[in-house]
UniProtKB/TrEMBL annotation:
GO MF annotation terms: carboxypeptidase activity
The keyword Hydrolase is assigned to this record: yes
A Pfam family reported for this protein in Swiss-Prot or TrEMBL: Peptidase_S66C
UniProt keyword Transcription regulation, yes or no: no
Signal sequence, start to end: none
Organism: Lactobacillus jensenii
Entry protein name: LD-carboxypeptidase
Length: 341
């Protein structure tokens, strides 16, 4: 399925509507149009930080409208943020999302993890790993080649066939201002997928996302109602539903301290997820922060010694970004360093 029209939504942060990112917006719009795409910003997506924060019901409206609009082939998230869980009542209380959700491309990452779980709940297959501001609006002269290859494959074919490691990884930018336009990122050689434990080949449908976002399903320290809403709307799958799936975990730009990372992995272990999934895929941490420490924690906290754990995927908050299809059978082969769908 070729994509002709993209709808851009702000489901978490409203930064897309701020003047501070106008130069990024323009870059992104031009790049999408150069790819032959029609671009529509949903009605509330450009209303800025304060409005978007205060109006979760308007964010929900935009998502529903994008699904309803038959001319929209792809829903692209502007960026992540931290409170998209607040859309739940407006999408699920009266089956609002269920009534309009249909299979079309949905792409986002970070806090959008929760939107992926919402759609997974309704049987919609989604794509994880890129967003408008972080990828399409890259300040370099063009999109980062690795990220661009996956994005173009998705818009031209409606799917992703294979994921391979990137040859390089990039440091996160410190400057996103107008004067940074056209400047390259600092790059380093990337070492590819790293098998920490378990068989070199395994398969299953992938689901998961940002570990900090997933931890909110189990922990109320950020917002007091994340657990109750998760349970009310059955947002996090039961162990039966996780059976045979592959869990994807990647860590956010907050670069959680190792003690916090251990807590988050332990919450998943206590839930029992590592006893039922067929494998774990873990993204490279941004700027490779706590790279060795996170690795050690995964090996210590995941008690199931037979469970394959693959580390250092180019997904999520480490740059560049592949795109991971959720809800599609994946075959992971570490000898060939490939994930096939």
């Amino acid at each position: 399925m070729k994509v002709n029209k993209i709808a851009i939504v702000s489901l978490s942060s409203g930064i897309l509507g701020e003047d501070a990112v106008a130069h990024e917006r323009e870059l992104g719009i031009k790049r999408l149009k150069d790819l032959g795409l029609e671009v529509e910003f949903m009605p509330n997506s450009l209303k800025g930080l304060a409005y978007i924060k205060n109006h979760p019901e308007k964010r929900a409206e935009d998502l529903l409208a994008a699904f309803k609009d038959y001319s929209v082939d792809m829903i692209l998230c502007a960026i992540g943020g931290d409170d998209t869980y607040r859309l739940l009542p407006y999408l699920f209380e009266h089956d609002e999302l269920k009534q309009v959700a249909k299979q079309k491309i949905f792409l986002g990452f970070s806090d959008t993890t929760k939107n992926h779980f919402m759609l997974n709940n309704l049987g919609i297959k989604t794509f994880y790993g890129q967003a408008f501001l972080t990828d399409i609006c890259e300040l370099d002269k063009k999109m980062l080649p690795y990220s661009q290859a996956y994005f173009e494959e998705l818009i031209k074919t409606g799917t992703i066939k294979e994921i391979h490691p990137s040859d390089v990884w990039y440091e996160e930018r410190k400057d996103f201002s107008k004067k940074a336009v056209g400047t390259p990122r600092i790059s380093h050689k990337n070492n590819g997928f790293e098998l920490l434990r378990g068989p070199k080949q395994f398969s299953g449908e992938i689901l998961g996302g940002c570990i900090e976002s997933i931890y909110d399903f189990f922990d109320n320290s950020r917002y007091e109602d994340t657990i109750s809403l998760t349970q009310k709307y059955h947002l996090f799958p039961s162990l039966d539903e996780w059976q045979g799936k592959i869990l994807l975990l990647e860590s956010s730009e907050t670069k959680s301290a190792p003690e916090k990372y251990r807590q988050m992995v332990r919450a998943l272990a206590d839930y029992g997820i590592f006893d039922v999934v067929s494998g774990v895929l873990v993204g490279q941490p941004q700027d490779k922060a706590y790279y060795e420490e996170y690795k050690q924690i995964l090996l210590e906290e995941i008690q199931n010694a037979d469970l394959p754990i693959v580390y250092n995927l180019n997904v999520g908050h480490s740059t560049p970004h592949c795109i991971v299809p959720f809800g599609v059978k994946a075959e992971v082969d570490i000898t060939q360093e490939v994930i096939k769908f």
